[in-house]
């Protein structure tokens, strides 16, 4: 069994964080930017979006399982599953309706993160 050196772990964590930040910023752009979240008083959306971005990046780019992602993020396996199975179709059209709600649902955060990840990969 290969042993991973500490500097390799740090480098991997930095790669994950860098990609998650890009995905998060793209997701934020999709909802209309930070001003839109402030306008609707939805700064509470930020943690959910970040969690969803981590889940999507860990699954799609680093091939982690639902159980591994749940363990890493401190979420339930079902929450991770909801994020990863979220449908992206129509999310852009429904974002105004979602912004009027007080809390973001897991599947909405997941859909935004998945859409953002997809768009980043297409532009790369």
Automatic annotation (TrEMBL):
**Can you name this protein?**
Probable regulatory domain-containing protein
The species this protein belongs to is: Candidatus Thermokryptus mobilis
Q: What is the lineage of its organism?
A: Bacteria, Pseudomonadati, Candidatus Kryptoniota, Candidatus Thermokryptus
């Amino acid at each position: 069994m290969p042993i991973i050196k500490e500097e390799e772990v740090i480098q991997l964590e930095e790669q994950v964080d860098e990609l998650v930040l890009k995905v998060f910023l793209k997701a934020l752009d999709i909802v209309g930017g930070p001003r839109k979240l402030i306008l609707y008083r939805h700064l509470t959306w930020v943690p959910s979006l970040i969690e969803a971005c981590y889940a999507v990046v860990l699954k799609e780019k680093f091939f982690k399982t639902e159980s591994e992602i749940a363990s890493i993020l401190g979420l339930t396996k079902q929450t991770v599953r909801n994020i990863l199975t979220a449908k992206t179709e129509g999310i852009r059209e429904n974002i105004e309706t979602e912004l009027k709600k007080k809390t973001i649902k897991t599947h909405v955060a997941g859909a935004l993160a998945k859409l953002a990840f997809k768009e980043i990969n297409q532009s790369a």
